From TrEMBL:
Keyword tags: Hydrolase
Protein name: Acyl-CoA thioester hydrolase
Single annotated GO MF: fatty acyl-CoA hydrolase activity
Residue intervals of the Thioesterase domain: 25-109
Organism: Jezberella montanilacus
Protein's UniProt keywords contain Hydrolase: yes
Family membership: Belongs to the 4-hydroxybenzoyl-CoA thioesterase family.
Superkingdom of this protein's organism: Bacteria
Keyword presence, Hydrolase: yes
Length: 143
């Protein structure tokens, strides 16, 4: 489908780094960036009116990460305020691709390309995005 290129399609949240997010040296443990990005995608969907709990319960559909490419450029530290940006880059029949970046102020710390697949919660196999979700996503990815 079409690529969403306008800044209007970018969603952002701020996340504070807590002690539990860091290693013994006060640096964010690498896997915790994945949690920060998950929160970013979840809030992005929530802002579009997509409730993942309701989608799983009522439509037997959920999202799973199927591909992940992460580049760690600089470390975040205890008490940093991070800015997580999420942007959809591709919309498929049963999948979404996201570009996500994590900043400390204007300094890029992490960038990623993530593919999310919609799956049937009963058999855990790929399934088409629910119609309502697909329509919401198509509305923001039109050129």
């Amino acid at each position: 489908m079409n690529r969403a290129t306008s800044p209007a399609y970018c969603h952002a949240i701020d996340i504070r780094v807590y002690y539990e997010d860091t290693d013994a040296g006060g640096v964010v443990f690498y896997a915790n960036y994945l949690k920060f990005m998950e929160r970013g995608r979840t809030e992005w969907l929530r802002a579009l009116g997509v409730d993942q709990f309701d989608m799983a319960r009522d439509l037997q559909r959920c999202f799973m990460v199927t591909e992940l490419d992460v580049k760690y450029q600089k470390p975040a530290r205890l008490d940093d305020l991070l800015h997580v940006e999420s942007r959809i880059t591709r919309l498929g029949r049963a999948s979404l691709n996201f570009d996500q970046k994590i900043f400390r102020q204007t300094e890029l710390l992490v960038q990623s390309a993530i593919q999310i697949c919609c799956v049937d919660t009963v058999n855990m196999r790929p399934a088409a995005l629910p119609t309502l979700v697909s329509k919401k996503l198509q509305a923001i990815t039109q050129d």
